[in-house]
Amino acid sequence: MELGLKSVTRLNFRLDHDLRLSHDRARKPGRLPPMFTIEDRPARLCDGVSRREWLRIGGLSLLGLSLPQLAYAKEQGRPEALVSPSFGKAKSVIFLWLQGGPPQHETFDPKPEAPAEIRGEFRPISTNVPGIQFCELLPRTAAIADKLAIVRSLCTHSDLHDASGYWVLTGYPYKGRQSREIDRASDWPYLGSVLKMLAPSPTLPSYTSVWLPDVMRLNDNVQPAGQTAGFLGYGWDPQRVICDPAAPEFHIEGLTLPPEIPPLRFSSRQSLLQQVEQHFSGVERGTVLRDFDRQTQEAFGLLSSGRARQAFDLEREPVAVRERYGRHKWGQSVLLARRLVEAGAKLIHVNWPREGGDEAVSNPLWDTHAQNADRLQDVLCPQFDVTFAALIEDLELRGLLSETLVVAIGEFGRTPKINGHGGRDHWGHVFSFALAGAGISGARVIGSSDKHGAYPRDGRIEPQDLTATILHLLGVPHTALFPDASGRPLHATTGEPLYALLGDRPATLERTESTGNLALVPPYSKALLLNRDFSDPFDLLPIGKAQRLKGWQGLPIRDEPAASLDFGVALASDGAGDNGVAVKPRQARLGLGVTGPTEAGLLPQGAQAVLTQELRNPRAGTYAISVHAACDGNSADLEWLRSHFRCRVVLFGYRDLTKNQQAGMREYASVPIELDSVAGRSADGAPTTVTRALRSQDAGASEIEMGVGLAMILERSTPGELPVPAGTRAFVKISRIDVSFTPRPRNDDVKV
Fold first, then answer.
1. E-state strands within 67-147
2. Stronger pLDDT, 16 or 315, i.e. the higher one
């Protein structure tokens, strides 16, 4: 029998409508009933799977053939459609997995009346729906609240990433031995795997369930249960696409054959089946296919079709659209999810991606055990708020929101009380999530938590109800069954759809202006230092004035010439034009006469001029910081400076959450700026580099938990009071600071 590329519809096949296998067609454990059977003599590959089975499971599904279970599911769904008109409203789901567990207090469930150690430092803001408030870290999301349904009363009763996440991702609580490990024999299948069986995509079946942009990992290489097809077998795993869509040379591993497999060039004169038979006839005699994973096998079916290739070609998107989603891994992954929706994928799971150096730290992903406020304001919300709002608005603009369900959720929430490292710990007793799009009645909140955001107050739900809701909206009844390896029917979910948030119109048509401040949460920047060349027109802030100051701080700060001893730190330029505008770049100055010739005076022993800034988002790895510095001033005064002062670059850790450098430092590395060697150099100055590897959880070092700072310190090196003659000008000027970071590598040997 032949299957030509231009005669796909002529395929002769027979569907197996029975969920049970007869005795003469017994299967190995984990195998599923055939999607269809090609009427020809089977030939086995090295792993026991025939080439035709390989085509049946992976490649030929691209033809649009559906499972017999689909017809059964549709038949079952007729009564459910009568109960709720929202049944089957969604063609696709974009499932945004906020791994780590977002804090309910700083997202969708602020508690402004709670004590400070519970409510945190951020305030609530009004959304565009009267009476609904979000945290001020979500100003863009607040402006689209009319399109959202927020659930504030989800509960898993578990504070474990793996067990709680398993329940959310599968709809079933974990019953196995160790939820930090994948157990193919006993794990309940991920929702996308069940969907792949019951309702495959009619246009892109190989991509019915897609998982971007990486597998789910806890620290290092711990891959928890709940993200695979479990006991259904590898054939029903989601199509896992490991990628970085924000990379300059973005490509998809799953759409090209691995180098071990020779390229297959299609010919329209020869049948697809015959070409595959010939191509693999030699390969199967070796061991290559033994490691030829299921995802790559499925991707073979896409090699002959331009639909998926075009979906992954982000260069087709206008630059403005890519910028709107955010030029980072998560933002571009969400954009890719939208393109996959357009291509026909059914469920696209977008995992919150890990960053370099976060494999063994106390605040990876949304898991903010330390510096919760900093991580939220600097890293997490600038990505989520921008990208989530962009997705919802983009889907609506394209007419896709009414047929696409969007879910934003993590595995649990965070503790009501902030801990000693300024973080929130695991909390599965109540947390929030957001829904939008197909079949969702927006402008509403379902359920509530108590006054501290600790436990459900009313409307408590569990993850199986979310699973039932997703299936319901996709046209799969929540009573649907699917077979296990032995053919025994199992319930896709034990939950009930959340009918209270379903509908074709919002809960209220009243609207108001949201009150968020976009400047508080600017789009995400990977910059490790702000204003590192001093070109931004921001003033210095006094050290210790307030907690979590952003930008450069100094002590003592000299803003303008004064009738006193001019010793300290200033931001200044070497010259100005006739209109008073600086014609040379600004620089930081530390020393005497930083704003002009100083008045006479006395400098006490130990006097310091300090310029400092907190490093943004410290991770585990090696930092190399280069300070470009030079001396300037009167020639005679420079010799005097060298005789009485020393200057150094310090990489340090803060000792408490006030982040006051003057209150004490954990000095990690200190390198002198050689005043002799830099005198007379160009304005840019010679670089002085300090290098240090920082650790978090490794060996209990805890070097980044309170924050990491950089300081340039000019300090007295001689005893007693120092007379300063009038007119003295001698200082160190800093033109820029360069920071590079090499992440701590992931330890793939750590798996539990």
1. 92-97, 124-126, 133-135
2. 315
Q: Which of 221-235, 478-492, 650-664, 668-682 has the lowest mean pLDDT?
A: 668-682
The full DSSP string for 473-513 is HTT--TT-EEE-TTS-EEES-S----GGGB-SS-S------
Residue type, 198: L
* Residues 224/165, Cβ–Cβ less than 8 Å: yes
If 0-12 CB within 10 Å is exposed, 13-18 middle and 19+ buried, where does residue 514 land? buried
pLDDT at 441 over 70: yes
CA distances for 41 relative to 17, 52, 53, 286, angstroms: 21, 9, 11, 22
Q: 259 preceded by cis ω (within 30°)?
A: no
Strand 347-351 to 209-212 pairing: parallel
Using DSSP's 3-state secondary structure scheme, residue 566 falls into coil
Length of the chain: 752
Nearest-angstrom CA–CA distance, 61 and 543: 64
Q: Give, in order, the Cα–Cα distances in Å from 698 to each of 8, 216, 474, 620.
A: 56, 21, 45, 9
Q: Are 46 and 289 in contact (CB under 8 A)?
A: yes
Instruction: Say if CB 236 and CB 197 are below 8 A apart.
Output: yes
Other beta carbons within 10 angstroms of residue 378's beta carbon come to 21
Q: What is the pLDDT of residues 462-493, one digit of tens each?
A: 999 999 999 999 999 999 999 988 889 999 99
Whether the Cβ atoms of residue 650 and residue 627 lie closer than 8 Å to each other:
no
DSSP string for residues in 191-260: HHHHHHHHS--SS-GGGSEEEESS---SSTT---TTSS-GGG-GGGS-EE----TTSTT---GGGS--TT
3-state secondary structure of 628: strand
Give the model confidence (pLDDT) of 21-69 as tens digits. 333 333 333 333 333 222 233 333 333 334 333 333 333 333 333 334 4
In degrees and rounded to multiples of 5, residue 715 shows phi and psi of -140, 150
**Interatomic CA distance for residues 288 and 56, integer angstroms:** 20
DSSP 3-state assignment of 338?
A: helix
- CA distances 70 to 230, 591, 718, Å, are 21, 77, 84
Sign of torsion over alpha carbons 287, 293, 299, 301: positive
What distance in Å separates the CA atoms of residue 21 and residue 487, rounded to the nearest whole number? 7
pTM as predicted: 0.84
3-state SS record for 256-310: CCCCCCCCCCCCCCCCHHHHHHHHHHHHCCCCHHHHCCHHHHHHHCCCCCHHHHH
Write the CB contacts of 297 (distance below 8 Å, at least 6 apart in sequence).
54, 57, 58, 59
Residue with tokens 């003592």: 556
